[in-house]
Amino acid sequence: MTSTSTQTLGTLDTTRRLREQSTATKVLAVLFGTLVLTASSHVSVPMVPVPMTMQTLAVTLVGGAWLAAMVGVQKAIAVGVAPFVLGGVLKSVLGAALLKAIDSGTRKAAHR
Questions:
Q1: Which stretches of 21-81 are DSSP H helices?
Q2: Potential cystine with 75: which of 23, 24, 71, 98 (Cβ 3.0-4.6 Å)?
């Protein structure tokens, strides 16, 4: 079986799982996700120069929970988390280095 065939079967299985859920379960899942996103928008993280809310984390958690429910936890980690870890770490390191460079540059300018 080719990887394309395996992916198609996996998609069909996921679609079947979603269709098997009751309407009430789907509605409750949407309402819960909306509630989590709404609540997370009220939590502010003081970042410089622009503060951010916790909505990015909430979207990640809600999406991860949905993916795990559809394809299983191990597959969700393999296709929904692992491919993005390196990029996330790299962006964090570059962001921290940039903030440090900006901070040291402004301190030098203030001492002149």
A1: 23-40, 55-71, 73-80
A2: 71
For the stretch 51-89, pLDDT in tens is 778 888 888 888 888 888 888 889 888 888 888 889 989
Q: State how far the Cα of 105 lies from the Cα of 84, in Å rounded to an integer.
A: 31
For residues 34 and 11, membership in a common domain is answered with yes
Q: How far apart are CA 20 and CA 104, in angstroms?
A: 57
User: What is the Cα Rg of the chain in Å?
Assistant: 21
Residues 19 and 41 in one domain: yes
Alpha helical stretches, state H, 72-111: 73-80, 82-110
Which position has the token pair 């799982």? 17
Do 64 and 30 share a structural domain?
Answer: yes
Half-sphere exposure of 71 (CA within 13 A, CB side): 15
